[in-house]
């Protein structure tokens, strides 16, 4: 039997290999925003690669990563010059006006699948922002129905640090109903005792509904794009990339 804590760390250790920096337009977009902010909170920071890169690029201010996954934070905590906090947004409730910038990358915003989760998380994020602080994040455009290609896009083979080949197979639960999409990632390796299966559900909000939730939280949209090259948002854009400001 594989120890659960070990397997979570094991999967986290190969996460960046399945999602290398060079293929991530989101990191290229967010890094300049982080470098321009004195204090930054990364909600859903994963392995912390974005904050680690910011520190390597010369960021001298406060960098804090927040994630509910123990395995991800085990990887992130190899870097000791950044704050790492275990939990969801409720873990930083009470940190009022402490951050000039909050980011949610890697479509982490979409794990907020209920109205209550959305409202409570946005309320905490808004409260953590300094006066005129910014919150930047992205969510996939539901009109594109990107999940139709996930079985090809997110199935792959990589080698871990030991050289063992790890296979990931993504399967979307059909039919998709409403704005929730459920799927699994099954990871296997001939060096492992058993497969590891990750079950996930993401919420796909359109731009109009999204704007309503942000307004309720006191966050005004200052920039919005349809892709990482800052092209305008259209019905065929793959992303809804949004930068908001408190008190704008």
Overview of this structure, please?
This protein is an alpha/beta fold and 248 residues long. The chain has 2 domains: 4-141 and 203-246, Vaccinia Virus protein VP39 (Rossmann fold); 144-202. 28% of the residues lie in helices and 31% in strands. It is built from 7 helices and 11 strands. It has helices at 4-18, 25-35, 49-56, 70-76, 115-128, 150-153, 207-216, and strands at residues 39-43, 62-67, 83-86, 99-104, 129-140, 156-159, 165-172, 180-188, 196-203, 219-225, 239-246. The strands form 2 sheets. Strands 3-2-1-4-5-11-10 form a 7-stranded mixed β-sheet, sandwiched between helices. Helix 1 packs across helix 4 (70-76) and helix 2 (25-35) packs across helix 3 (49-56). The protein starts with a helix and ends with a strand. Mean pLDDT is 92; it is low at 1-6.
Give a brief rundown of this model.
The chain is built from seven helices and eleven strands.
Indicate how many domains the architecture comprises: 2
Note the gap between the termini. Answer: 53 Å
Count of DSSP E strands?
11
Multimerization state: single chain
CATH class of the largest domain: Alpha Beta
Structural class: alpha/beta
Q: CATH topology of the largest domain, anyone?
A: Rossmann fold
Question: What is the string of SSEs from the N terminus onward?
Answer: HHEHEHEEHEHEEEEHEE
Largest sheet: spatial strand order:
3-2-1-4-5-11-10
Please state roughly what percent of the residues sit in beta strands, choosing from under 5%, 5-15%, 15-25%, 25-35%, 35-45% or over 45%: 25-35%
Task: Report the CATH superfamily of the largest domain.
Answer: Vaccinia Virus protein VP39
Net shape: globular
Total count of helical runs of at least 4 residues: 7
The rounded Rg comes to: 18 Å
Helix content: 25-40%
Global mean pLDDT: 92
The CATH architecture name of the largest domain reads 3-Layer(aba) Sandwich
The description of the largest β-sheet is:
7 strands, mixed
Uncertain spans = 1-6
């Amino acid at each position: 039997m594989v120890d659960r804590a070990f397997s979570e760390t094991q999967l986290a250790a190969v996460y960046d290999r399945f999602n290398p920096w060079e293929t991530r337009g989101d990191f290229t977009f967010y890094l300049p925003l982080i470098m321009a902010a004195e204090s930054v909170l990364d909600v859903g920071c994963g392995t912390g690669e974005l904050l680690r890169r910011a520190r390597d690029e010369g960021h001298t201010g406060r960098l804090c990563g927040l994630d509910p996954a123990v395995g991800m934070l085990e990887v992130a905590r190899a870097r000791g010059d950044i704050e790492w906090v275990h939990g969801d947004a409720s873990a930083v409730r009470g940190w009022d006006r402490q951050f000039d910038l909050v980011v949610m990358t890697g479509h982490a915003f979409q794990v907020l699948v209920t109205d209550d989760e959305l409202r409570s998380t946005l309320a905490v994020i808004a409260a953590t922002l300094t006066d005129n602080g910014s919150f930047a994040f992205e969510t996939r455009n539901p009109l594109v129905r990107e999940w139709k290609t996930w079985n090809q896009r997110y199935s792959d083979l990589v080698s871990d640090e030991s050289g063992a080949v790890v296979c990931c197979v993504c399967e979307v639960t059909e039919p998709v109903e409403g704005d929730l999409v459920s799927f699994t990632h099954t990871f296997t390796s001939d060096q492992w005792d058993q497969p590891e299966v990750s079950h996930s559900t993401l919420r796909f909000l359109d731009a109009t509904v999204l704007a309503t939730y942000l307004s309720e939280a006191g966050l005004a949209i200052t920039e919005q794009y349809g892709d990482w090259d800052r092209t305008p948002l259209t019905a065929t854009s793959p992303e809804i990339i949004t930068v908001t400001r408190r008190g704008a």
